[in-house]
Amino acid sequence: MFNYTQLEEGKVDYLEIASVDEIPNGERLFVDIGDTPVVVFNVAGEFFAIGDVCTHDDGPLGDGDLEEHNVVCPRHGAEFDVRTGKAVSMPAVVDIPAYPVQVRNSMIFVGIPKE
User: By C-alpha distance, which of 38, 48, 42, 47 is closest to 24?
Assistant: First the structure.
């Protein structure tokens, strides 16, 4: 697993996901990038992307409530910061992947590490 803040410049491919109009404030969009489920959140006009798998029990995470910058796992209540992927509440202790997001010409791009 990785955290995008640790990626070196040039080691990321940005993929176009959607227009900013497709994800209103407070909403999210579920996408599969290859075999990887990803959730893109709009939090007060800022976009964040995380893996859609809770590290506590591998359950889906993206359907959970969004509380400020934390998504709450709908199964057991673990919380993760959507900005960084950091696990901030038990029962999860392992972080989830967080992906860099860019907005260009009203389109949202998510950065995925190059293989």
Answer: 42
